[in-house]
Design brief:
- The protein is α+β, with helices and mostly antiparallel strands.
- It has two domains: about 1-5 and about 55-185, no CATH class; about 30-50 and about 185-275, no CATH class.
- The chain is about 20% helix and about 25% strand.
- The chain has six helices and eleven strands.
- Strands 1, 2, 3, 4, 5, 8, 9, 10 and 11 form a nine-stranded mixed beta sheet that branches.
- β2 and β3 form a beta hairpin.
- α4 (about 210-225) runs antiparallel to α6.
- The longest helix is centred in the C-terminal third of the chain and has 21 residues, at about 255-275.
- It starts with about 70 loop residues before the first strand and ends with a helix.
Length: about 280
């Protein structure tokens, strides 16, 4: 059974990817692709906003679990199931620092809920153990990874839990959507530029910002995933904003929209840097 296999960290899900301060990164999140020839009228004219893929909304699912968080705790392990009306779920097993979240589709037959997972987001230890190390261990660093996932998650009975000794505690989860990236960040309330994660950016709104504003705007995405900044000034800035830092690489956690917006910001930065040379 999967839920006994992976200790992990949960809300505080943090960790952020190295494209953060990535002036030197080669991933698509901080693209260094060459900027096209500047036009005399507007050197930004060739830039385009990212395009969102079209999604067709399916019928809403009706069941008592929709909008609910079913939680169970035993020993030092915490299991949580989150249900959404689009038929998606999130399942987490938590220890102190390591995130492990599976997402996919759920279905119900009365009180029995079955799961069909399709993706697993988790932290891979990438550093020495921080003592003490008991039933679960904390490491000095993690690398965030995402893999397609098709192994079964055991079905649950929402009324029985695992018997009288381990019943579910039930809460309203208050999450607006089943978007996995919003769930993994869990730090958007601290952000001043959350639009980088929420909508396609327009070149026109970026070109009048300073290089420093663009740099902070771009790196705030990674701070929201708790990236460990190598740049001391960035590390101090985001620590002061209340962001945690546990991962040296969370590229795998970034959404396609975030990657595209970061690439656009980098293009604007490149043009501005060229302009300062003249």
């Amino acid at each position: 059974m999967y839920k006994k296999m992976i200790p992990l960290a949960f809300l505080g899900l943090f960790l952020a990817a190295c494209a953060g301060e990535a002036e030197t990164t080669t991933t698509s999140t901080s693209s260094e692709s060459a900027v096209q020839t500047e036009t005399a009228a507007d050197p930004y004219a060739h830039l385009k906003a990212p395009e969102l893929p079209k999604k067709e909304a399916g019928p809403k699912v009706e069941h008592e679990v929709v909008g609910k968080h079913y939680a169970m705790a035993y020993a030092s392990t915490f299991e949580s199931y989150y249900f959404f009306d689009d038929g998606r779920f999130m399942y987490t097993v938590n220890s102190d620092y390591v995130p492990s979240v599976m997402t996919g589709e759920w279905s119900a037959q009365g009180n029995k809920i079955s799961f069909k997972p399709d993706a697993h987001y988790y932290g891979k230890p990438n550093g020495p153990v921080i003592p003490p190390c008991g039933s679960s261990c904390t490491h000095a660093d993690y690398i965030m990874e995402m893999k397609s996932y098709s192994r079964a998650i055991d079905p649950i009975d929402i009324k029985e839990g695992q018997g009288e000794e381990l019943p579910f505690e039930v809460y309203e989860h208050g999450l607006k959507s089943s978007d996995i990236h919003t769930f993994l960040r869990a730090k958007d309330s601290k952000r001043s530029s959350a639009e980088v994660s929420n909508r396609p950016l327009q070149p026109s709104e970026l070109k009048n910002k300073s290089l420093e504003e663009l740099r902070l705007m771009r790196n705030e995405v990674f701070a929201a995933y708790s990236y460990k900044f190598k740049d001391k000034a960035l590390a101090a800035h985001f620590k002061a904003q209340g962001f945690k830092s546990h991962s040296s690489d969370v590229t795998a956690f970034l959404s396609p929209l975030e990657k595209d917006n970061i690439a656009l910001i980098k293009q604007v930065e490149t043009i501005k840097k060229e302009q300062t040379k003249h």
